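Marked as duplicate of an earlier ticket. Keeping the data here for the record.
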Amino acid sequence: MVDTSLESPLPPSARRFYRPLGRAAQRTAGAVLSGVKMRAVVASALVALALVSLVQLLVDESVLRLGWQVWRMQDTLPEEGPMGLALFLGMLATRRFTWRGRTPSRPCPDQVQRAVALLDAQPHACAGLVRLGDKSVLFSDCGKAFIMYARKGRSLVALFDPVGDRAAWPDLVAAFCDLARRQGCRPVFYQVSQDFLPHAVDLGLHSLKLGEQAVVDLTTFDTRGGDWVKLRRSINRAERDGLQFAMLSPAEVLAAMDDLENVSNAWLAQHNAAEKGFSLGTFKRDYVASGPVAVIRLDGRIVAFASILTADAGGDAFIDLMRHLPDTHRGMMDLLFVRTMEHLKGAGYRALNLGMAPLAGLSSHAHAPLWNRIGRRVYRTGERYYNFQGVHSFKSKFDPQWQPRYFVVKGAALPVVALFDVTMLIGGGLRGVLRR
């Protein structure tokens, strides 16, 4: 007879069968566990860096210091400690990929002037940022289109859609990708429109939505009616309190340059911010004087201004550099925006670009990519660092058309290193990003 007693289940108690590991086995197990933990930490760091870089490159000025603020808050806000550590480790992990390689010299002034000559023949006023002179220019073979770009680390970053003749776009985009490859860089396209996406698909590039751009149709803009009652009250109160609007011509801008610079310096000091660049206007006297500037005065003194880029071909205008003195009046910006729109409408312009609302309009369906799910969560819960919903709400007051904008890069994974490079490019390097 076969003894079946040995087939009974063993008692579920490890203590009865304990056998200590030898030292060699313990070292091996410890190394495996340490490796797993390190990979988890690095993965978390890269995801955190992607989020921080996304927020930083989308928003204006002081928000570029988000990551440093999170790191500093870990002593007072314990729940933020892991994010701060992940950010710090992510920056160290990507340093070798982002800070090697030379940064190309400034573009030739003749190239910039050649690009400026094409601006009048295209409809998008934001292309006027080429006047900053901080971007290189790649022209199409026919000379009727160009891409403005800059290099940071291993990323060659193009700003906006190509400018100029649409027929030249396919070959020009391919030429830019070839240029990036010859320089040992990844091609990156920042803030491109839906019109650009077919070219991205043709070249095997991956697109991620950054947010939505607010564009006001000036041909139908009118503050009369019940929908505009709150806005009318705000600007009427501002004017009763002595605020006055004016649109300065380029000649008048030169005469008021000292006052404008004082406002700009006060704004920078309040935010403890350095001047940025690339996709943001910078207070350079020749750049500010290249177009009209909308100003608000109080008692004859300029307290707020916004430089306006214009494109004659399509009747398009773009609010670029915007600065104001702190704590002047709650209705000051409403007055600046509404009167600017009315002035541009009277001058025959058909649209005004108010810029992006970061992370707005990301899809939420079950098949949405991970990028969208992360972005929507930041949009809903990231008010501590940036007023995402407030920016969208403010621009919505002017009843704009919302147009999606994308970040296009080689590869389908979260573009952590490319995002970091663009952040450094806009912020003027690590010192500018971590200034506060």
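See parent ticket for discussion. The CA atoms of residues 49 and 87 lie 5 Å apart.
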